[in-house]
Records
---
Amino acid sequence: MATGLNAERYLPDKRTLPVLQKAVQNCHGCDLYRNATQAVFGELEAGSEGNRPVAVMMIGEQPGDKEDIEGHPFVGPAGKLLDECLQQVGIDRREVYVTNAVKHFKWEPRGKRRIHKKPSVQEIKACRPWLDAELEAIRPRLIVCLGATAAQAILGSAFKVTQERGKIITKAGLPPITATVHPSAILRTKTDEDRHREKRAFIADLKKIAALIA
Ligand code: URA
Ligand code: SF4
């Protein structure tokens, strides 16, 4: 069924960030645009565009409820936690371009709430041309996959984040890649103890990244 899904034909000829950012709003490369408010493209922290070379591209899964409404990546609870942890390890947020493997919010209703739904392999593949265009435009020195969906998009489904987090992986045509958990996995833990442990492990991974880009 979903074999024909692909964003490629919606990509503009001129692939600068502002042009891509506009063009993605018209993407019908898969069905996820239907129930989302808008596409959420990657970006640098507001106000820091062009200030310095981008050291890191961090890739999440997809926009969440707040991102879908506001039109910016990582502005909800997961983004707040990410910003806090970046600050703790001394990574300048202005050197980090944040984006997502999938640009539209996938959700299902539960009462009045919109509950996040995992994008399918086909949807991740369909959206990959946008990610490639971002990589071309940004040329980061390091790619950081946050969680399994981003790792799937960049490293394939055989990659297991839990077993291989923090390793540096090389892939033809791409800068060095590393993967860690998604900050929302930390927020989803059931006990304080689990949350603290997961957060410490996440910060340890970010520390390695900080050393790499220093
Ligand atoms: N989670 C993600 O993966 N991306 C966002 O932009 C926000 C939450
Ligand atoms: Fe296009 Fe990606 Fe949105 Fe699907 S999720 S419609 S491929 S931008």
---
Amino acid sequence: MSDDSLLAEAWRRLATLAARPGAANIRPLFAADPGRARRFTATLDDMALDLSKTAIDGEALVALLDLAHAAGLEGFRARLFAGAPVNVTEGRAAMHMALRAPADAGLRATLPGGIDDASALAAAEHARMRAFVADVHAGRLRGATGQTFDTVLNIGIGGSDLGPRMASEALTLAHGARLRPRFLSNVDGHAFAALARELDPARTLVLVASKTFTTQETMTNAAAVRAWLAGALGPKVPETEAVAAHFAALSTNAAAVAAFGIAPARMFGFRDWVGGRYSLWSPVGLSIALAAGWDAFQAMLDGAAAMDRHFRTADFAANLPVLMALVGIWHVNAMGHRAQCILAYDARLARFPAYLQQLEMESNGKSVGLDGRPVPRPTCPVVFGEPGTDAQHSFMQLIHQGTAVVPVDFILAAEPDHDRPQAHRILAANAFAQAEALLAGRSLSQVEAEMRAAGAEADTIAAIAPHRVFAGNRPSTTILFRRLDGNSLGRLIALYEHKVAVQGWLWGINSFDQWGVELGKALAAGILPDLTKGTAGGAHDSSTAALIARFHALRGET
Ligand code: F6P
């Protein structure tokens, strides 16, 4: 059989297995196999990935692994780590792994103009970042008025915000921060107005994080912060001195950084083989190191490198990112589930779902295949989440009893970093209970018996009991590890990164571009003059034209 027909056969096999009567039922799988939990749990060091509470049985797992082989996943993985231009529409490698690999790893990365020594470039820039962090922490680098910095303000959006913000929060919430991390992403002036009230300009170190250094929101915010600093520190301190002392840039665009007035010594660079949503390991992660300390940042790099090694070398049947990806494929393509919920039972990971929304949906929210044709099957599900236990009091109703089946990823550290062990046991009990409830459900006869035991009348039982039934057999995955620290966070992030890459490959799409964000940007540029001039001109649909006119009317600009 040709590769193509093998692949087609592998997809057909999944469909056949999904069509078996009771294929979505999970409880019988536990009844049939006392060793199921162990058999369907994969580990990397202390990190366990329990996939047993999904409807995957031995046959389905074999079929999914066959699909991975038929799709040539080994070859894709080899090309990814070889720095081949896997981002085909932009002719680039996706070599973020070089940013966390040992300096002597010798990883290379293809770009349209040639091949970079990615390991050497990464090591050189990390050394500069480390020295900068040490100088700031030691007070050798100070603000323009001679005061030490107490806050790092990262200005950036998308990948230049979500990863650094999530990781800074995760690594500083338990132990406090060396510098207070603050983030400005939204162009909405209210966001900066709120920050300006709490920041001391004389003690604020500003990082302008933008791969392109052209993003409208980031450049607007950077200009606003520069004006605010200059206004606050002037007239004694000239604006150029304020910018020189307080600003640093994290970017690939040296010319634009220079044009903004930031000197090369204050620019930390990276290259186009680092995608925006994979950039927290690059200088874009400088706020993490400034806030949590270099050692925590380095531990995060080391953790991610450990996951890279595992992904690169482990058999697919024991490979955490591959298994997680295959379970996702099963949910989307065999079971027809179109959403994925992320529940981290850890307040420090409150921003993890927001980070994953970009990682997953910007990477795999595609409907055109690598061959330029429409993809023949659904791709990325809608990803959303909140921290547990908060989520239990908002959308978990739908996940337990709604008409849509939404698989959940539960994420939990066994040991907390606070001194209230009972609170952590309560947290963990809730995480495990949610997963157990999704699996076990509660039948009508159970509900009726419970209500009878509680003394309810027969007509009350008949009217109320159906509303209290839980169907169960709702899938979830649990990621459990010892403690949330740099190393486990690095492993967790890299686990999802590689899962996303594997899924993209199996769906036959390019996970590393994001053309879908362009149209809105272009149209906003076209609408802005209409709003500025006070006229609703331009070629807009009638709804947009009417909204522009109403906007003006509400502002008294007609
Ligand atoms: O939202 C689109 C996007 O290009 C993301 O991929 C990227 O992370 C973000 O904008 C920010 O881009 P930049 O770092 O160039 O400012």
